[in-house]
């Protein structure tokens, strides 16, 4: 049944008013907000915004972490027929200018002083920005800005208005239609200005409901909302599906307490990009390396059993009685305590998306009894395009098309999608809209892939990034940079990779080490270092990374299509790639073109045969100051392997 976000809120408030809708941790204590209280808050905020002048069809920016009042403000805007536009809370002030001006935003919600300062800073560039409402008043007591007001003041004014006009809210939400615009999300802007992806209430809620039905989600689920609300993945799981199912969304106290909060809540439905799962596994392995010999030995013994038996059990297949007994013992001594330590003892369904996940990483979580699966989607498709059914989860595919989705593969290998969840348009950008949406309703994903024999979709890379090696022994071979980068990132010691090779005679890569994992590795070997730059250039670290690269090369040699993508040379960068320096998007995707321009001297050094290269780079610190980081980087050759011929 088609509906809208505010009507779903009203339904939950009417059917189970006292049930918890959200929880927020503040000063170490979890506070619950019932559906009835949330509904009253939304009505009052909507009335306050109406009095302040927010009108149907206007956009309202919301910027902050997951908080009940941020969600309530989004619902209040939608109740008036206005359109919430979430922005990344870690974005620099300058990054907010284009979205605010493009969407002609007059009203903004800011969580705290940091976000208020950011919006006040851009007011000269955004003269139409009239009103900024803040949630957390700490640090704002002496601010004297006519445009600035607290959400408490807005809600108090709205409460008076609701008392005088008791039918106002119902009249407003009854005007909305499922095909009205419900929200707008800005893309990460890897190649230029971000684009505003326009979604209707129906496109978002249709996909939310399909995903919920697929995994049999109910109102009894517990979800931890800890990723940026501006990312559509978080928005679907903790906003659209929250209202579609009526489960409880829990907001952690801060980014620093997420791990603790995860254990306290024990979510039943969990979503995270691969980098979060990589971080969890890395922390586990670091702790085990520091454990005593007996504990470490027991861990490795039972993990070997889990690796052999666990995925088979997760797929519902039979195993021998002895293996079943050993796995039960492993659950008691290792897997159960480990799931509890990770905060996943109650997880019934866990999803990862956004990037490819390493087979070893994927297998690890499934082997200890966590039902980790992959999905495929994007901002433009309202996330849910393909999902992995229970007992059919594989690391090398992203699942089968979910309900309502059609997929076809173009002649150039691009995946085309039809779905009720497709974007309505790119805001004020008909040319870009026409590029991705055909007249007969097919969406160009820009991803290259194919449907395998089991009906599962397999993604290779972005179509524009798939290239060819030119010259040398592998002349004409396919080059898929993302595929190579992901295979290297599957190693716990490697955090980020940027691969080059299109139109060149060999593949070369930049590598960021994982500072925590490599730092722990170095400390256990009594290898002294003074910060990231020093550690990254240690000969011992280069040997460690070289072994990882050569293992990937051995794997690639067995791949008929991508054997020519083996890495011939690499260097470890002197600094971590950073969104504040423009090298990553706010969703931590590599901006390969920008990096190529910024480090063109390093690319020339890799391809000219040099063994080292001096580099000095300007960086931006968290407090806004700038500085420079310099180093002489080693450049290392690696062993490549002859392609393995398939058996006749």
Walkthrough of the structure:
α9 links the parallel β10 (222-224) and β11 (248-251). Among the domains are: 6-176 and 215-271, ANL, N-terminal domain (Rossmann fold), CATH 3.40.50; 466-637, GMP Synthetase, Chain A, domain 3, CATH 3.30.300. The protein is α/β, with parallel strands linked by helices and 648 residues long. α1 (5-15) packs antiparallel against α2 and α12 crosses α13 (321-342). Helix content is 39%, strand content 21%. The termini are far apart. The protein is globular. The longest helix is centred in the middle third of the chain and has 22 residues, at 293-314. The model has no long low-confidence stretch (mean pLDDT 93). The protein has a five-stranded parallel sheet with strand order 4-3-5-6-7, sandwiched between helices.
Helix content: 25-40%
The CATH class assignment of the domain at 6-176 and 215-271 is Alpha Beta
Span of the ends, CA to CA: 54 Å
Counting H and I runs of at least 4 residues, what is the number of helices? Answer: 21
Strand order of the largest sheet: 4-3-5-6-7
Radius of gyration: 26 Å
- For the secondary structure, the number of strands is 29
Q: Note poorly predicted spans.
A: none
Shape: globular
Beta-strand residue fraction: 15-25%
What's the architecture of the domain at 6-176 and 215-271, going by CATH? 3-Layer(aba) Sandwich
* Structural class category: alpha/beta
According to CATH, the homologous superfamily of the domain at 6-176 and 215-271 is ANL, N-terminal domain
> Averaging pLDDT over every residue, what do you get?
93
């Amino acid at each position: 049944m088609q509906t809208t976000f505010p009507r779903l809120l009203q339904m939950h408030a009417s059917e189970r008013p006292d049930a918890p809708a959200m929880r927020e941790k503040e000063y170490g204590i979890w506070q619950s907000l019932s559906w009835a209280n949330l509904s009253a808050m939304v009505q009052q905020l909507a009335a306050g915004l109406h009095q302040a002048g927010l009108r149907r069809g206007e956009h309202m920016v919301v910027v902050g972490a997951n908080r009940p009042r941020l969600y309530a403000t989004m619902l209040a805007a939608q109740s008036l027929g206005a359109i919430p536009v979430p922005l990344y809370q870690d974005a620099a002030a300058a990054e907010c200018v284009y979205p605010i001006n493009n969407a002609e935003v007059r009203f903004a919600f800011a969580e705290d002083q940091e976000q208020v300062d950011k919006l006040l800073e851009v007011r000269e560039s955004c003269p139409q920005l009239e009103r900024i409402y803040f949630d957390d008043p700490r640090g704002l007591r002496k601010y004297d800005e006519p445009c600035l007001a607290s959400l408490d003041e807005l809600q108090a004014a709205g409460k008076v208005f609701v008392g005088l006009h008791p039918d106002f809210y119902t009249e407003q939400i009854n005007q909305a239609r499922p095909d009205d615009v419900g929200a707008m999300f800005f893309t990460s802007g890897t190649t230029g200005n971000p684009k505003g992806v326009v979604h209707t209430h129906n496109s978002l809620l249709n996909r939310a409901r399909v995903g919920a039905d697929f995994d049999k989600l109910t109102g009894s689920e517990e979800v931890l909302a800890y990723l940026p609300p501006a990312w559509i993945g978080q928005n679907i799981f903790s906003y659209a599906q929250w209202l579609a199912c009526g489960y409880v969304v829990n907001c952690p106290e801060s980014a620093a307490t997420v791990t603790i909060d995860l254990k306290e809540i024990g979510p039943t439905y969990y979503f995270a990009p691969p980098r979060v799962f990589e971080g969890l596994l890395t922390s586990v392995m670091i702790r085990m390396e520091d454990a005593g010999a007996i504990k470490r030995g027991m861990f490795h013994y039972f993990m070997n059993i889990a690796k052999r038996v666990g995925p088979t059990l997760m797929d519902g297949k039979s195993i021998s009685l002895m293996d079943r007994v050993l796995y039960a013992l492993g659950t008691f001594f290792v897997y159960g305590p480990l799931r509890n330590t990770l905060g996943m003892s109650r997880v019934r369904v866990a999803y990862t998306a956004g990037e490819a996940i390493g087979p070893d990483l994927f297998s690890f979580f499934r082997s200890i009894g966590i039902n980790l699966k992959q999905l495929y989607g994007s901002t433009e498709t309202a996330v849910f395009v393909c999902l992995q059914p229970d007992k059919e989860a594989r690391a090398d595919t992203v699942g089968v098309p979910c309900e309502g989705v059609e997929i076809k593969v173009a002649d150039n290998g691009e995946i085309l999608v039809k779905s009720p969840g497709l974007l309505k348009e790119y805001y004020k950008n008909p040319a870009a809209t026409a590029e991705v949406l055909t007249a007969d309703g097919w969406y160009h994903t820009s991803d290259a892939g194919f449907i395998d024999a089991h009906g599962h979709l397999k993604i290779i890379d972005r179509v524009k990034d798939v290239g060819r090696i030119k010259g040398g022994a592998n002349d004409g071979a396919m080059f898929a940079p993302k595929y190579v980068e992901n295979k290297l990132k599957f190693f716990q010691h490697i955090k980020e990779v940027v691969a080059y090779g299109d139109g060149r005679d060999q593949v070369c890569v930049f590598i960021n080490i994982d500072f925590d994992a490599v730092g722990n590795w170095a400390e256990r070997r009594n290898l002294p270092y003074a910060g990231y730059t020093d550690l990254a250039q240690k000969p011992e670290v280069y040997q460690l990374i070289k072994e990882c690269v050569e293992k990937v090369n051995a794997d690639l040699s067995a791949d008929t299509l991508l054997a020519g993508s083996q890495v011939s040379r690499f260097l470890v960068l002197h600094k971590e790639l950073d969104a504040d320096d423009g090298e990553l998007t706010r969703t931590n995707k590599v901006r390969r073109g920008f990096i190529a321009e910024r480090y063109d001297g390093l690319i020339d050094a890799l391809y000219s045969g040099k063994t080292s290269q001096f580099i000095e780079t300007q960086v931006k610190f968290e407090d806004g100051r700038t500085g420079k980081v310099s180093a002489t980087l080693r450049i290392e050759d690696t062993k490549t392997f002859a392609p393995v011929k398939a058996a006749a």
